[in-house]
């Protein structure tokens, strides 16, 4: 099987990209966390320790784990990558030409690992050397950000997603996350593991304003057998879906894209916070959101480079048709109405499937984990008391790079 090929959500997971957060979480404060899309500040040490357990759980199951900071530092060894990233992330228009030039020059001399940390963790005015003088510096305090931290890099699922033999490098909806995409663009363009790879870039690799055509990987489920399921959420728009679906069909990587409309609210930020694929015929769902009356369509190629659209009677029927199975089995969030709502908020449905019927999930979701167990699904539990405060579970925190078909 080719490297960098993701053929499903539940086939054997072979390689994954994670991000162990550090500097960006240290800079999360009660006054800035909302703007940075976090509901709370996290204990940095405990979040890091929990993340290490997540990574070692995956390695123990034979999954190759690549860390974003390592990949970024290695990509920076390529001079062209470093020049591009510095001019993109520290642009003349952001800082003014004089100041930007001085900051880029200073950063360019830094060790690449330290530079990678700043590209995800941010940079303050207090951290730059005193010889860099400028009117921009004069009008800022030491703790103001030159580059804001990117704490949501923790959720590697969103910034890019591999679909069959290619990747979508996603234009993010919220300003707090848009710079993340540039770090991924640099990795996929220049890192030796990807630069010579024979894979397709479906969407999002250009430095342009994508306007309303936004897309995030948490809304994209590669359900397999030539089908992709995408949620229309507060972050993924019909415009973004149209670009991705058109490209998938043009490159003959998918035969159909099933699209489902989600409510636009925080607890259901992405499709994978309310629904994940855990065995060939089995999905975990939060029934308050994944409802019979949800609008749902199937997109197929129209033969002229455009899309045919059929409105479906129900999401389950559309999935059964796409996968060629008689009946989808649903496991709903556990407990009574209160417990289910709490566990959904704590990502009980956001599990990462390692192979059919084996998933990684937060140990705190006891009611739902018990339901999985009774249904014959094995849960490998990880602690998430701190990580879970970022509102993302094991699926959100992982970007599969290589996974088998079903």
From TrEMBL:
Documented EC number(s): 3.5.3.6
Pfam families: ADI (PF02274)
Superkingdom classification of source: Bacteria
GO biological process: L-arginine deiminase pathway
Compartment annotation: Cytoplasm
Gene Ontology terms: cellular component: cytoplasm
Gene3D superfamilies cross-referenced by the UniProt entry: Arginine deiminase, L-arginine/glycine Amidinotransferase, Chain A
Entry keywords, A to Z: Arginine metabolism, Cytoplasm, Hydrolase
Catalyzed reactions per annotation: L-arginine + H2O = L-citrulline + NH4(+)
Residues at the active site: 396
SUPFAM superfamilies: Pentein
GO terms, molecular function: arginine deiminase activity
Annotated pathway: Amino-acid degradation; L-arginine degradation via ADI pathway; carbamoyl phosphate from L-arginine: step 1/2
PANTHER family, sorted: ARGININE DEIMINASE
NCBIfam families in alphabetical order: arcA, PRK01388.1
Recorded family membership: Belongs to the arginine deiminase family.
UniProt-recorded name of the protein: Arginine deiminase
Name of the gene: arcA
